[in-house]
Model the fold of this input.
Amino acid sequence: MKLQTKINIRFLGVTFLVFSFAGVLFYFALDKVVDQNIREMLESRKAYILLNLQQNTPTSESIESPDHSIFIKRTEKMRQYTVFSDTLAFDQEEKELIPFRKMTFTVHSGGQFYEVILLQSLLESEDLLIVIVSFMVVLFVLVLLALFFLNRWLSNNAWKPFFKSLSVLNNWKIGESQVVSFDRTGISEFDQLNSTLENMMQKIRTDFVNLKEFTENASHEIQTPLAIIKSKLEMVLQDKTLDDQQHQRIRAAFESTIRLSKLNEALLLLSKIENRQFVKTSEIDICALVQSKLDYLEELFSLKQIEVTVRLDNQVVFRMNPLLADILINNLVSNALRHNIENGQFIISCANQELTISNTSQHGEMDGSRLFLRFAKQTTSNESNGLGLAIAYEICKNYHLDLNYSYSDGMHHMKISKKS
Amino acid sequence: MKILVIEDELALCETIVSYLEEEGYRCEQAATVELGSEKVNLYEYDCMLVDIGLPDGSGLLLVKELKKCHPETGIIIISAKNSLDDKISGLDFGADDYLTKPFHLPELNSRIKSLLRRRKFEGKQELVIDKITIQPENKQVLVGGEPLQLTRKEFDLLMFFVSNRGRVLTKESIAEHLWGDFADSADSFDFVYSHIKNLRRKLLERTGTDYFQNVYGTGYTFIA
Done:
């Protein structure tokens, strides 16, 4: 949910609650005032009638006013108090029952007790209430709407620099050299955020460059002594006076140097991929890439007499770095070759934006969860440094591709597909 | 043939120089850009081997400088940085070849030979080894005037052996020469074995001489 929407919803929610509460209070207050008013009206009429009755004694048993608002009749009992009550009466004009406020009291006049009933229609006050309340509701809705739009407009304006910074960040690529600078916004919080971001990005870039240099220097520092060892051993191997045993020992040392340098290279490659040092990407036609390797592949497979099946009818295009695409295919193919058996099978196929490489192997099903981990060797083959699949996995991860392992019909399948 | 080796790692430099001197080259050494630049400006060389990471700057500067004053000199970059950018800019500056450390000495030797052949004789020179005549330009091999059919890999292999006659070539260096970066991606030793077997058979059939000698499971030597 967007921050603006969230704020708006809360703001409107609170406003709505306050307004509703205030509305209810207002209604009761208004009701009370109206009620008070009616009481006072009845009280003043009572005073008038008392005065009138004390001066003129009524002649008949009961008297009714022409507008049915005053009833006076003779009574036996004297009541000391005034009673207020609500009643419904039939109104001639409106032709319906309407609410009335009723006041009952007794008066002593000319040696007689009279009970007086005063009625006051509540219709007018009710109409008044309705008018006021509906006016209030309309006002309330209008204010709410106005607040909503005002709030949106204000926050849109206020957050503009934020979204600008956000888009700058989104477009930022660590490998690119141009310096990112944010405009002055005039809002101190955003300026502060922007300058913090600028500093951070600067720092990240320096760290990145340092790391890049470090990995390359580390490579240099390790490869150079290795080159010395390797060349010295190669020189010694030329010595015709060496006996078989000496030869074997030097050869073992020589072989280990080669493995060490390959391991070093693989680790460097991994860290370079992880550091996203391969910035340039292009659309890579995977089938064409495999096709271009077929000559080489056929030669490799022919010695083990592996049956190669190639199904590259459907085009599969991934966006990635060309060098990494090459490494990815090489690693998977050589993996399928290395663990293959004599007269085995190798199937490479493209379909539905997926590349699948399948091979027979001397090993049964592998542990798919450990297969792509570094140094997770599942065989004791000396030629494998256990990094090939980790590199392939890392490359796929880098370009939002899935690399899946499965085992069926005695074959291992490696499938690369776009992440859904 | 004069070769200038610019490499700051003394031990490596000495090995390269002694290996190349055994091959009959005259070598000079320099360990810094400054020294290298001095030599490049003063003398002429047939080939320069230059390391990129030198203590006082990048070897690429020397490549540039050499291209300006002696454009006919062959240049091979040797670097520990296996970075694509370096390779591209090195070759753009006019280097002829690029080798990543740690390389095999026979590989370096073979590349120097092929570079010098291309530079000095425009590829037209014939190599005659015993009964075998090799024409590097059109990748032809003649035995007794008659062409010998070799696959591309077999031809490369023969050139590699011929460039390093009498030396022990390890299976690793042969595999790396034939497949480069792909060498470790396959059971390359089996391939080395099968290619050598084929080449050996073809040469033996036509010349009656077995030029290859197995060396204690280490590799092979070409004797002629």
In short: The CA atoms of residues 3 and 155 of chain A lie 10 Å apart.
